Amino acid sequence: MSALSIADARPDAQTGGAVLRVVVVNGSPSLRSKTMGLVDAILDTLKGMLPIEASQVDVYRLGAGFTEALERDDVPPEVEAALRLAEEADLLIAAAPVYRGSYPGMFKHFFDLVDQYALANKLVLLAATGGGDHHALVLEHALRPLFAFFQALTVPVAIFASAGDFDGVTLLDPRVYGRIETALTDVADLLEARVRRRAAEQ
């Protein structure tokens, strides 16, 4: 499977065919993981609110051209395409499992290559999974400061799910679903405004 994929596309007549461009940066080594199970729940909730086109960048599948790159000028075209996709999203979902108290190095390396100003004022939803609730600290102590550097607009409510919230990779805990709904409802007006602006531009 490609490191870059389109998960869903749902144009809507009420918005003139415009959709919200959502890009997931998946920091998990696995395509089927609790982290992506959490993302699936977020996307399903979002689909009920707005027409979306969801794309996914799997950082662990970007290849040697990504892992060996020290600077943006070093990356091959397919990695450049992944970076641009993230930079041009209307809503970026940054999703990662907790590894040794923080996000994985591959996840950080992807954002090391993102242009310093490309995420300014971009809406970013933070999502993470870990073995226990104490790992939720990664959201405020690692992920939010990372995107503060980029001057991004991180969604005020971040989403965390622990191992006990899942059956396999399927999220079950209604408390987490409630937090997802709260997070997205808080920024619904901003998301809808971006869809309408795209409709006006078409």
Automatic annotation (TrEMBL):
InterPro entries, per database record: Flavoprotein-like_sf (IPR029039), FMN_Rdtase-like_dom (IPR005025), NAD(P)H-dep_FMN_reductase (IPR051814)
A molecular function (GO) term: oxidoreductase activity
Ranges for domain NADPH-dependent FMN reductase-like: 21-163
Pfam families: FMN_red
Superkingdom to which the source organism belongs: Bacteria
Keywords: Flavoprotein, FMN, Oxidoreductase
Protein name as annotated: FMN reductase
